């Protein structure tokens, strides 16, 4: 362990290093590291370790939102599709009616 004893803490130049962070590979003293998932992580890498799962959750939430949006579009499309089908199923005689023409054009 001679090499480790010669190393100094990355944050405290006067302190001897006690641990080497497996993430960044820098040496740190006991005060600069914390245990996380049975591994000793430096204070600089700990936020990254904690953030990783949260970022994955955010991506999942984004995908869920996208799926909800797509589902909404589908519902709206289906709604208009039904309206279109309803209009198509109407008899032609309905469109030939002059009810709206006589009311609004003849007035002017
Ligand atoms: Zn680190
Ligand atoms: Zn330190």
Report the structural category: mainly alpha
Strand order, main sheet: write it out.
1-2
Q: What distance separates the N and C termini?
A: 101 Å
Task: Return the string of H and E elements.
Answer: HEEEEHHH
Q: Report the average pLDDT across residues.
A: 84
What is the quaternary state of this protein?
A: single chain
Low-confidence stretches: none
Q: Tell me the total number of β-strands.
A: 4
Ions, cofactors and other bound molecules: zinc ion
Beta-strand share of residues: 5-15%
- Overall form: rod-shaped
| CA-atom Rg in angstroms | 35 Å
The number of distinct helices, counting runs of at least 4 residues, comes to 4
Quick one: biggest sheet? 2 strands, antiparallel
Proportion in helices: 55-70%
What do these coordinates show?
Helices cover 56% and strands 11% of the residues. It is mainly alpha-helical. The strands form 2 sheets. Strands 1-2 form a two-stranded antiparallel ribbon. A two-stranded antiparallel ribbon has the order 3-4. A hairpin with a 2-residue loop joins strand 3 and strand 4. The longest helix is centred in the middle third of the chain and has 44 residues, at 46-89. The chain is rod-shaped, with a radius of gyration of 35 Å. The termini are far apart.
């Amino acid at each position: 362990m001679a090499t480790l004893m010669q190393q100094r803490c990355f944050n405290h130049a006067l302190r001897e290093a006690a641990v080497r962070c497996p993430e960044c590979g820098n040496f740190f003293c006991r005060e600069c590291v914390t245990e996380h998932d049975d591994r000793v992580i430096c204070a600089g890498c700990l936020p990254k370790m904690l953030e990783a799962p949260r970022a994955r959750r955010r991506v999942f939430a984004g995908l869920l939102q996208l799926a909800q949006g797509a589902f909404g579009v589908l519902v709206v499309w289906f709604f208009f599709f039904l309206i279109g089908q309803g209009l198509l199923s109407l008899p032609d005689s309905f469109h030939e009616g002059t009810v709206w023409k006589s009311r609004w054009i003849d007035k002017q």
